[in-house]
Amino acid sequence: MARMKFVCDAERCIECNGCVTACKNENEVPWGVNRRRVVTLNDGVPGEKSISVACMHCSDAPCMAVCPVNCFYRTDEGVVLHNKDICIGCGYCSYACPFGAPQFPSQGTFGVRGKMDKCTFCAGGPEANGSQAEFEKYGRNRLAEGKLPACAEMCSTKALLAGDGDVVADIFRNRVVQRGKGAEVWGWGTAYGSKQAGQPPAGVKS
Amino acid sequence: MMRLAIATAALMALAACGEKPQTAAGVKSDAPAFQGAENKFVAPGWKPGDKTSWEQGLKARAQNTQNEYSKTK
User: Fold this and answer.
1) Where are the domains of chain A?
2) pTM given for the model
3) Is A178 on the interface with B (CB under 8 A)?
4) Do B30 and A145 touch (CB under 8 A)?
5) What is the CATH number of domain A4-167?
6) What is the ipTM of this complex?
7) Which residue of chain A is at minimal alpha-carbon distance from B39?
């Protein structure tokens, strides 16, 4: 299996925020924390586009590189996770992340920022898969249940694709061929490397 | 000769300035996802503990739930 990836199809996203709601509900994310957000590019300008953004589980994750306590780890499927028992809430990962993924719950018993919280690709954390302890700290472990992330499965227009990188790339490629436009994938090159498919042509702003 | 010596010295001096590849794996103590979850929400159609079955299940799920072209074209 290839590694897990997210693709957001800007041609399809209708800014319904269904992905945000699904994520918050599935993982019981506290107030003030949004693991996933819908961002509008060129807001108000004709042709504006919306995209759903969360942790992209980068191939070469900057958060892992800057973490002073080495709390991050990568699963066999390429999902970037972290151990909240090790995290000290320093916020370095927040500055390093190009997608603004790390969140810091302000209501907690730990420090000013609280321990970092982010999208887990619905893959939980280091605790036993599907256990109550894992759910309380990281949310649902849908991957261990044989399911894909709730945000993508709940997406009304299937703009947000999640799963095996080869499969989602194949689905997206087929769409682009069918409609004859919209090959740009925002964030794909940043997260998974500039030499991969989905990069806009040189000089074109995605 | 002198130029070669300078180039060699510069190469050796700058060797320490190279950035390390950022491939840190961190602390890994998580059980693989294909082992299944300890709850009643496990999707049917695959066998927990069987990696191939888990992978095939996820691939089929991705195609069934995210690729409407497979149903309409």
Assistant:
1) 4-167
2) 0.83
3) yes
4) no
5) 3.30.70.20
6) 0.85
7) A130
